[in-house]
Amino acid sequence: MRIVLVGPPGAGKGTQAAFLAGNLSIPHISTGDLFRANIGQQTELGKLAKSYMDKGDLVPDEVTIAMAKDRMEQADAAHGFLLDGFPRNVSQAEALDGMLSESGMKLDAVLDLEVPEDEIVKRIAGRRICRKDSAHVFHATYNPPKADGVCDVCGGELYQRDDDTEDTVRKRLEVYHTQTEPIIDYYRAQDLVVTIEALGKVDEVTARAMSALKAGE
Question: 27 in a domain, yes or no?
Answer without folding.
Answer: yes
